[in-house]
Each structure stands twice: as structure tokens, then as C-alpha cells.
């Protein structure tokens, strides 16, 4: 299994009515040098200005981004190239990140290379620590900038530290 850490930025709370603005992914290995970055043209006229602001892109900029189908196809190809076995989706907030990635894959490509499951980094850490109130974010080395590649890399660093500290396979 190959873990792929993913982070997305959006202009609203749900896919379909709103758009995924960008996303980043990194293969979780000791190098963290296999990354993907996609910027997607909006699929809807609706957006929440405060949510779009987090991505550090203006609406005018996003309108110049690539067609979502092209980006999702490139991501699927990247996954195939970088995974010799089953890709496993993991993120900091998989309830949010997963719903956008899954929806976009199925909507634009009619398939999802990750299948139907995702994993949550925060929940894993809570289980390892046996404490539902702890947070893993202090384990990140790369600063959380809301650039989705930076954020995915920081989360992947945290997972590698968890693997080392707790002897995870």
C-alpha cells in the first residue's frame, strides 16, 4: 500500500455547489519528493469569499485555472506512476478533503483510484496517544501555509514521525 497525503482548498463547504480551488498530494516515504499540485477552474458560480480567501487566490485568478477534468486525469496518471500497489488516501481532515477529491474523481472521470475509503491523520494520532483531545500538528516540520502541497508535506512529515515513534508499519 502506498499512502498519499492530500490537502485541498475550496471556495465553499461542499463539492458540486462549490468548487475545489486547488489540491496537493505527496507520496508518504522517507524522501517526500513525489508531489502533485493542481489548480482547478470553478465548476459553479457560487463561492464563499472567506473560504476562497484562505486559498490566497482571487475569483478572477481561479477562472484562469485548468479545466477540472484535465487536472483530475493528470492526478490519476500521477497516482498510477507513483504507486506500485494500492494507493491509500490520507489527510488531516479527511471528511472535508476526501469529499472533494472523491466527488471530482467520480464526476469528471467516473472512477476514483483510491476506491471508496479514506484515512484521517488526526484520528490516527488520537488513537496512538489514547487521548481524544490531543493534536498532531506540532509534529509538522513544513509550515502550514494553505498552499496544499506545503500542507500535505507537513502532514506527511507528521505521519513519518508517528511511524517512527510508535513503530507503525
Question: What would you say this structure looks like, in words?
Answer:
The chain has helices at residues 49-54, 59-62, 68-82, 94-109, 121-129, 148-166; strands at 2-10, 20-27, 35-39, 87-91, 119-120. The termini are close together. It is built from six helices and five strands; from the N terminus they run βββαααβαβαα. The protein is of the alpha/beta class. The model has no long low-confidence stretch (mean pLDDT 97). A five-stranded mixed beta sheet has the order 3-2-1-4-5.
Concise synopsis of the structure shown:
With 169 residues, the protein is α/β, with parallel strands linked by helices. It has helices spanning 49-54, 59-62, 68-82, 94-109, 121-129, 148-166, and strands at residues 2-10, 20-27, 35-39, 87-91, 119-120. The protein contains 6 helices and 5 strands.
The Cα radius of gyration reads 16 Å
Residue share in helix: 40-55%
Overall tally of structural domains: 1
> What CATH architecture label applies?
2-Layer Sandwich
Biggest sheet statistics: 5 strands, mixed
* Secondary structural class: alpha/beta
> Can you tell me the residue ranges where pLDDT is under 50 for at least 5 consecutive residues?
none
Which overall shape is indicated by the principal axes computed on the Cα atoms?
globular
Mean pLDDT: 97
Spatial order of the strands forming the largest sheet: 3-2-1-4-5
- CA-CA gap between termini: 11 Å
Please provide the count of β strands.
5
- The top-level CATH class is Alpha Beta
Classified in CATH, the superfamily is Ribonuclease H-like superfamily/Ribonuclease H
CATH topology: Nucleotidyltransferase, domain 5
Order of helices and strands: EEEHHHEHEHH
Amino acid at each position: 500500500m502506498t499512502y498519499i497525503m492530500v490537502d485541498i482548498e475550496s471556495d465553499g463547504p461542499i463539492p458540486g455547489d462549490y468548487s475545489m480551488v486547488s489540491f496537493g498530494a505527496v507520496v508518504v516515504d522517507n524522501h517526500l519528493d513525489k508531489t502533485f499540485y493542481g489548480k482547478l477552474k470553478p465548476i459553479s458560480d457560487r463561492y464563499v469569499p472567506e473560504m476562497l480567501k484562505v486559498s490566497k487566490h482571487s475569483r478572477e485568478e481561479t477562472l484562469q485555472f485548468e479545466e477540472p477534468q484535465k487536472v483530475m486525469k493528470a492526478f490519476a496518471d500521477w497516482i498510477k506512476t507513483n504507486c506500485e500497489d494500492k494507493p491509500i488516501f490520507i489527510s488531516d481532515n479527511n471528511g472535508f478533503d476526501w469529499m472533494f477529491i472523491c466527488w471530482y474523481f467520480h464526476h469528471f472521470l467516473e472512477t476514483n483510484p483510491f476506491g471508496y475509503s479514506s484515512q484521517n491523520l488526526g484520528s490516527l494520532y488520537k488513537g496512538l496517544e489514547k487521548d481524544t483531545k490531543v493534536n498532531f500538528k506540532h509534529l509538522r516540520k513544513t509550515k502550514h501555509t494553505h498552499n496544499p502541497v506545503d500542507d500535505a508535506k507537513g502532514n506527511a512529515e507528521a505521519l513519518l514521525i508517528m511511524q517512527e515513534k510508535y513503530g507503525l508499519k
